[in-house]
Amino acid sequence: MSSPNASTPGNPTPAVTARHAPALDLSRCALLLCDMQNGFLHPDGCYARGGASSPRFAPIIPRLRELALAMRAAGGLVMATQFTLVPGRGGEPLIADHLKSLRPFLRKGDFAPGSFDQQVIEALQPVDIGVEKVGYSAFYMSRLDYVLRKCGIDTLIAGGVVTNGGVASTVRDAHTHGYHTLVLGDGCAAYREEVHAATLADLGYLTEVISCAEALSRIRTQAHRVP
Description:
Elements: E1 29-34, H1 38-41, H2 46-49, H3 60-73, E2 77-83, H4 97-102, E3 129-133, H5 144-150, E4 155-161, H6 163-176, E5 180-189, H7 193-203, E6 208-210, H8 212-225
């Protein structure tokens, strides 16, 4: 017997149950755009150069853009994680061994601080706060937790790429740090649909998985209630 939150091939976003639907306090909520960077998404980025781009990523961009515009209009915070390869001696990037093996095309200058690859794609600019990250989770060895707490944020609406990598790792760590999370089922993407769907189903035990349309509705509804 399937769970009421289980995903199906025709509906990769698990249904939302009644216990998951708290009203959003936009003063304490941030839209977190995970790794929506030129390096991963732009045709001139390093992943496209290395043949590691995916057509599955492009459809989420307009959905996230609409949400970002709504959050800004409602006075909410729009944040972005920015995967970064820290330059070492001679400017050569410090790359984790597993990433070297997975993406051997990465080279000097890719995802360097301030580089084209590291920047958030133009369609999602501007962001209020960008946070550099060096691993899958944006909480790992970063200032994200500090920034969220200083800004009074306790709820994250997360989307981006890839579902089973940066998005899932960041959402799990957010849960560990005590944040309430919502994951945008059609606002994140993976290289394979079955991996995307399986990850969303797995995340359902600790987060709420909703569509971008549902998130947009909640943001606009709450914005209208603010005096």
